[in-house]
Write a structure and sequence with these properties.
With 300 residues, the chain is of the alpha+beta class. The protein has three domains: 88 residues, no CATH class; 105 residues, 2-Layer Sandwich (Tetrahydropterin Synthase, Chain A); 53 residues, no CATH class. 57% of the residues lie in helices and 21% in strands. The strands form three sheets. It has a three-stranded antiparallel beta sheet with strand order 3-2-5. A hairpin with a 5-residue loop joins β6 and β7. α1 runs antiparallel to α2 and α4 crosses α6. The longest helix is centred in the last third of the chain and has 41 residues. The N and C termini lie far apart (112 Å). The relative contact order is 0.06.
Length: 300
């Protein structure tokens, strides 16, 4: 549009300059009034017959109200008075934002959805002649189609299957805009907003689900540990010497820790024949305690 505006400014300037020159010639009596008027009208007609279209545009030309063809890109000429250019149609890919506010899903949840549509005019003649304002028509049909798609899906489907919903919406829009010479290439779901109360409830539900899975995992681990212990106990069932060695190993590992205390039931000691071992360990711990508490004697 900037190129056409600049060209219109230049055309207007040329007409003004030509008018000034003709007025000067008339003032100097080089030409009379009839030549002046004729030359001025001719200059205006020539200037109005020159048009320009940008590289990405097509100009729709009518002659006496009937469609005669497309012009451009670049400079082209039309017949003054009987021809006119009704529109310059951009054939580049265009982007349109549209949204659906407070639309109910299939499970009656109000949502706000914002989407974006990429479309282009592939048939300029149809876009100019079949629909009055194709840009506004696309805006409205996209918004209506989005509301229709939302009403056919539940909230969980909207949140999880955005790509599938965008694909269905793109197909719906393409079917409606193809008769206008317009194709909808891509639809993207930019944002889905749900009520704050429902968002908090879904967050709590997700947290509860994570806690449930954590408890299930912990219970499964406990079951596996119990199975391993049961399997290990079979090795000690008929081998008391191995059981006694294992018990001694456990007590020895415990005594390695500084300041540690091991409390073992007497029944367990008798069962594993560790009564003497327990007494020796206790006596060793008592001796260490007395040595630490004994005051240091200085030489006289």
């Amino acid at each position: 549009m900037e190129t056409k505006n600049l060209f219109n400014v230049i055309s207007t300037t040329v007409i003004i300059v030509a008018t000034a020159i003709l007025a000067l010639l008339f003032y100097l009596k080089i030409i009379d009034i009839f030549y002046l008027i004729g030359l001025w009208i001719l200059s205006a007609l020539i200037a109005s017959s020159i048009k320009i279209a940008d590289q990405w545009e097509k100009a729709v030309q009518l002659r006496v109200g009937r469609y005669v063809g497309l012009k451009g890109p670049g400079i082209f000429f039309i017949w003054p008075i009987i021809d006119k250019v009704i529109d310059y149609i951009d054939q580049r890919v265009r982007v349109t934002d549209f949204k659906a506010d407070q639309t109910l899903t299939k499970d009656t949840v109000p949502v706000n959805v914002v989407a974006v549509l990429y479309w282009t005019v592939w048939d300029v003649e149809k876009a100019a002649l079949e629909v009055q304002d194709y840009q506004t028509a696309i805006q409205y049909i996209a918004q209506t189609g989005l509301r229709d798609i939302i009403g056919k899906h539940e909230l969980a489907e909207l949140l999880q299957d955005r790509d599938k919903i965008a694909e269905d919406l793109q197909k719906l829009l393409d079917d409606n805009t193809n008769p206008w010479g317009i194709t909808c290439q891509t639809v993207g779901i930019k944002d889905i907003t749900i009520p704050q109360g429902l968002s908090d409830a879904m967050s709590k539900q997700a947290q509860a689900e994570r806690e449930r899975k954590a408890r299930v995992i912990l219970g499964t681990a406990e079951t596996e540990i119990a199975e391993k212990f049961a399997k290990a106990s079979e090795s000690y069932l008929n081998n008391p010497v191995a059981l006694q060695l294992r018990a001694m190993n456990l007590i020895g590992e415990g005594l390695k820790e500084k300041g540690s205390m091991i409390i073992v039931p007497s029944s367990a000691l008798d069962m594993m024949n560790l009564g003497g071992m327990g007494g020796i360990a206790a006596l060793s711990q008592l001796n260490k305690t007395e040595q630490l508490n004994k005051p240091e004697q200085k030489p006289v």
